[in-house]
Amino acid sequence: MIFLVTAGPTREPIDPVRYISNRSSGKMGYAIAEAALKAGHDVVLISGPVKLHSSRGAKLVSVSTSDEMFDAVHQHAGDCDVCVLCAAVADYKPATVSPLKIKKRGDEISLELVPTRDILASLGSRRDRRFLLVGFAAETHDLQENAVKKLRAKNCDIMVANDARVGMESDENELLVLFRGGEIKKFHRTPKQILARELIKIFSKFATKVFDKKNVMISERN
Ligand code: CTP
User: Fold this and answer.
1) Any catalytic annotation for residue 22?
2) How confident is the model over 111-141, as pLDDT tens digits?
3) 46 and 125 in contact (C-beta within 8 Å)?
4) What's the gap in Å between 219 CA and the centre of ligand 1?
């Protein structure tokens, strides 16, 4: 199978020397890409700026802003069987980017922010969708309830939920895997590499089932 994996943060520029970003390290996404490769799959890794080396064998697409990630994801998703959107994409970006460094003044300033495009939701609504769609939900409260809402709102097949305070920048994570049909699987605190291996098994099994069903549907139609 071909896996598309997004990882890391995005950077939304304010001026030539400043940006808005977040603390995502990219470790979970890179571990998923690595586990998929080890399981014999092809991988397109679309990565925001991180301090990690991509696995040899993955096709690495480096991006910086949410708009660049949006374009790269849509460019590759049609060729993939499983799309795993693990990146911590900025939800807002500055309304305008100053071409010159904003100079310090004595008074207060404010920054106008506008929403970015939601990449996961845009894949969920693609009419030509033939891939399994997996989202990641980073929460600090009401983990399961918020993740179920995201699963439905973004039309995913699977939503992997974690407490951002446990997973962010860490080598370990604690996960809830929520399936479209309502099933839930829980993983206690475990190294991200091990979790990634388990997730790849789950995603490939689920994708195989979905594709079997699609084949049945296609043959029923013919
Ligand atoms: N996501 C995305 N594009 C965005 C924002 C988020 O594709 N502009 C994706 C993330 O990659 C992740 C999922 O949506 O797979 C959930 O991201 P998360 O940050 O947990 O939730 P948000 O939808 O941004 O909502 P909130 O920040 O309010 O929790």
Assistant:
1) yes
2) 999 999 999 999 999 988 999 999 999 999 9
3) no
4) 36
